[in-house]
Amino acid sequence: xxxxxxxxxxxxxxxxxxxxxxxxxxxxxxxxxxxxxxxxxxxxxxxxxxxxxxxxxxxxxxxxxxxxxxxxxxxxxxxxxxxxxxxxxxxxxxxxxxxxxxxxxxxxxxxxxxxxxxxxxxxxxxxxxxxxxxxxxxxxxxxxxxxxxxxxxxxxxxxxxxxxxxxxxxxxxxxxxxxxxxxxxxxxxxxxxxxxxxxxxxxxxxxxxxxxxxxxxxxxxxxxxxxxxxxxxxxxxxxxx
Length: 241
Fold this sequence. Notes:
Elements: E1 6-11, H1 14-26, E2 30-35, E3 48-52, H2 61-70, E4 75-80, H3 87-94, E5 98-101, H4 106-125, E6 133-136, E7 139-142, E8 148-150, E9 153-154, H5 159-170, H6 178-185, H7 197-208, E10 218-221, E11 225-228, E12 232-234
Helix pairs in contact: 5-7
């Protein structure tokens, strides 16, 4: 039996929370609803947290950061009111996994939630590859955590940068286009949006390559996409300096 994925629905309207949670449950997901006053530590063991940020003065950014500070592997989904004027760029810059507006299309909600959870499972298991730890030359990556080392020293990637790097590592030897990366991480519905994979790739290279202008680890195959070279999976851990 496939284990159900756990979803927390958080917001200031209990009726909306219950409606969203009930919809997810009826589509095979295990979901619980919480008031906005919930302790963030309660949310960190969920695979996905759906935040109704429409009445939050800061657009949910402080609660989002508290959740990610405790466990940055948690996927986070924002639901907002268009009248707030924040938009997808606001959520994307934070590192949020998906952004929807009221009124919700419940079928679309379920589709997006399942797409996010597929991504969570994909990253947690390292795709089809065996071994939790990945080494690519001077780069070392924990597929189930957030540790990235370059020449033994830890570097900090944003949540979206880390997801892209893990998606490429899990399919080592394959060339993935920008659209394929977006589909595997955020879902096919985000293809053609303002997500800029080249910008993320450039930022990742600035952090992991000794010469970002001449990348040796995260390479580009012109006209096709991106790939990681010389990837080695193992179960042997590593430590940061």
